[in-house]
Amino acid sequence: MTKNNPLLGWQVDRAAIRHVGHGLQRPECVLAERDGTLWAADARGGVMRIAPDGSQRLVAPAAPDDDAAADFDKRYVLSQGSLPNGLAFLPDGDILIANWGSDSVEVMSREGKVRRLFDRIDGQPIGKANFVLRDRRGRLWLTVTTRMQPWTDSINARARDGYIACVDERGVRIVADGLEGTNEVRMDADEAWLYVVESNARRISRLKVRDDGELGARETYGPDRLPGFPDGFAFDAFGNLWVTLVMSDRLVAITPEGNLLTLLDDGNPEATRALDAHYESRTLTPEIMAAACGSLAPWMASLTFGGPDLRTVYLGSLRGTTLPSFRSPVAGLAPVHWNEEIPA
């Protein structure tokens, strides 16, 4: 292992964690801007804009779903209503949304006007739209976790019906299929590889990116099996891949050599043991999943590097109401929008 890796021997200091935002609903994905503005996905059908001074404003259609007391089945199992999940900035500042509830890809202006980009590929419903990414060439990448409904059935089934789609000048097309619980995707610094979370297989995979947007064969990156369900991830500038393990609520990192480091463990040990046992026996239920969560960012779902030096980490979650944040010993890899002039 490279000796000068800044993560060696380092872990998150819980006493130094600060919470950003309040009253958030399902802040699954977070976007950060250079000026300190944060945008968090929100279950009321839009995003919450959190200004550098801490003030916040819900950006959503005129009549958002404000059901703060939505029960677990409605919001997390049946996924009813508009549930923005993965987010990405478009060059004009609009927000691209993978909508987990409506099984669609949307574009929302910074004033809250939403239009549906598409909800079908090759004439078929796209399934559970999870995450969107824009690369430096302007291509858009979409992940679909599963075509099963409810989506939770796909875990015990180990369904290999997840996929990655590419949107470019040729239109929308599937470029990788047969994945297990496709979740977030990221590119390395050179955009040579597309990395993908396969949540249900508990692994990170990567595929070589060709000039025409097609992808090479899948290969596992890092451990063959992670100690939990990976959900979100992000590279730092050193090349470590930080990964959230949802429900067991751990933050880990895969080093460039493929070794695994634990950076934060906020899980409930007993509930995590039950979660893992039922995963192995393919007897998971929503009730077992619901019992497994931590207290900092319940159902820790994503991480985002922000701050002027990209060394402030924000944790997104599915069941939290704030964004826990802390300082990292290494900067994050700058996202594609970082050096763009985004309209106010």
| Amino-to-carboxy terminus distance | 43 Å
Number of helical segments with 4 or more residues: 4
The number of distinct β-strands equals 26
Assess the beta-strand content as a share of residues.
35-45%
Can you tell me the residue ranges where pLDDT is under 50 for at least 5 consecutive residues? none
A few lines on this structure:
The chain has helices spanning 72-77, 153-157, 269-281, 286-291; strands at 18-20, 30-32, 38-42, 46-50, 56-59, 84-89, 95-99, 104-108, 114-118, 120-121, 124-125, 129-134, 140-144, 162-168, 171-179, 182-187, 193-198, 203-208, 219-221, 229-235, 241-246, 250-254, 260-265, 300-306, 312-317, 323-327. It is mainly beta.
Model description:
With 344 residues, the protein is mainly beta. Helices cover 9% and strands 39% of the residues. The chain is built from four helices and 26 strands. The protein has helices spanning 72-77, 153-157, 269-281, 286-291; strands at 18-20, 30-32, 38-42, 46-50, 56-59, 84-89, 95-99, 104-108, 114-118, 120-121, 124-125, 129-134, 140-144, 162-168, 171-179, 182-187, 193-198, 203-208, 219-221, 229-235, 241-246, 250-254, 260-265, 300-306, 312-317, 323-327. A four-stranded antiparallel beta sheet has the order 1-26-25-24, with no helix packed on it. Strands 2-3-4-5 form a four-stranded antiparallel beta sheet, with no helix packed on it. Strand 20 (229-235) and strand 21 (241-246) form a beta hairpin. The chain is globular and about 45 Å long. The N and C termini lie far apart (43 Å). The relative contact order is 0.15.
